[in-house]
Design brief:
24% helix, single chain
């Protein structure tokens, strides 16, 4: 069973419908106590970092998410859910994140030829072979909607990068039992469904022995 965290700022039903297409059982979690009853967790998110971390705090999810990661259950962050895993965001101020991974959340720098937010299809450049990317390859296209991105302090957690204009950014991370994507797998058609299937397989097998560089 995969639990999808509901803190009022995620496209929960889209994620759940994608899992249903894969015949993967999931449920929406509105209480932190429910995290104990699932085998894996998805942390979705759309909107502003400040509001999201505020809602996680208001619903008492912060400690529960940290404990879930410490218990070695697989966790998948999506879009803003990836950004929330890091220490600090500089979106319209300075805000503390979950601190599960070291690093910051920063904005794209303006360029004459690009639009911010970065919205639409773009390609992945896979940086490490992780079970999350089984069946995926560099050059595969996925769907993005974001104006900010993560800058990990530890480059070994970078699973994939993508380029917008002249700026390369981290589009996926993998660290132990923690996975996350800046893109929306639930909106990324075949590639996104394959990634969600891979995460479901990780949850089923509890096999997250690490990754190797490609």
């Amino acid at each position: 069973m995969i639990g999808i965290i509901d803190y009022g700022m995620g496209n929960l039903r889209s994620v759940q419908k994608a899992l249903e297409r894969l015949d993967v059982q999931s449920e929406i979690l509105s209480s932190p106590n429910e995290l104990k009853d699932v085998d894996g967790v998805i942390l979705p998110g759309v909107g502003a970092f400040r509001d999201a971390i505020g809602e996680l705090q208001r619903h008492d999810f912060v400690k529960a998410i940290r404990e879930t990661v410490a218990s070695e259950k697989p966790l998948l962050g999506i879009c803003l859910g990836q950004q929330l895993l890091f220490e600090t965001s500089y979106e319209d101020g300075t805000y503390e994140g979950l601190g599960i991974l070291e690093g910051d959340v920063v904005r794209f720098q303006p360029e004459p030829t690009i639009k911010i937010p970065h919205m639409g299809w773009n390609s992945l450049e896979i940086q490490q072979q992780t079970p999350l990317f089984s069946g995926l390859a560099s050059g595969d296209y996925v769907y993005f909607v974001h104006g900010y991105f993560v800058q990990p302090k530890d480059s070994s957690v970078i699973a994939a990068t993508t380029t917008h204009g002249s700026q390369e950014f981290v589009s996926a991370i993998a660290s132990g039992n923690v996975y996350a994507t800046q893109f929306h797998p639930e909106k990324s058609q075949r590639i996104g469904l394959q990634l969600l299937k891979n995460f479901a397989n990780l949850v089923a097998s509890r096999n997250f022995a690490g990754t190797t560089e490609s």
